[in-house]
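ESCALATION

Customer reports they have been waiting on this structure for their group meeting. Please prioritize. Original submission:
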Amino acid sequence: MKKMTKLIAVGFTAAAIFLGTNVKAQTIGTGVRLGIGVEGLLPTGNLHDVSNVGVGITPRLQFGVADNIGLTLTSGYLNYFGKELGNTGVKTKSYGMVPVKAGIKAFVSQNIYLSGEVGAAFETSGFGEVKGGPEYDTNTKLLASPGIGWANQTWDVGVRYENYSGQSNNFGAVGLRIAYGFAL
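Update from on-call: job pushed to the front of the queue and completed.
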């Protein structure tokens, strides 16, 4: 499963590069843009065992390098809300992380883009307890995010899969990001 996710991420990135270089429909331009996004997240894998839903806020800088290609830098905060374990009355702790990703956004037709981002996700609260107390162990995960979306000069709506891997605990989330953007 881990290899399949990496292959999908590589495929999206390759498609974005190769298809995006031949299409001149969207005008990103060569300027710098800032978008502020609101996230809705559906956990998958091990993360779904402790959370059913997550939300976040993600500012993204976009550097236009051609009319249809932009380089991105995204960060923010994501929170996965804890859920009740069965009918036990025991609720899991919320799981938080700060993603830091760099990537590419390539328009393949008018307003439609493919994207790929890689980076790190810094856990602000972890899954397992640390010995000797209620503290939770936090780690840094490798983060890969292929996606597809629609954007114009003001709005950006994208869907992506976030794959978190590291410390023998690999999981993911499907994310929907709605962002308002403007030129700097």
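Sent to customer with the following note: Helices lie at 2-20.
Escalation resolved.
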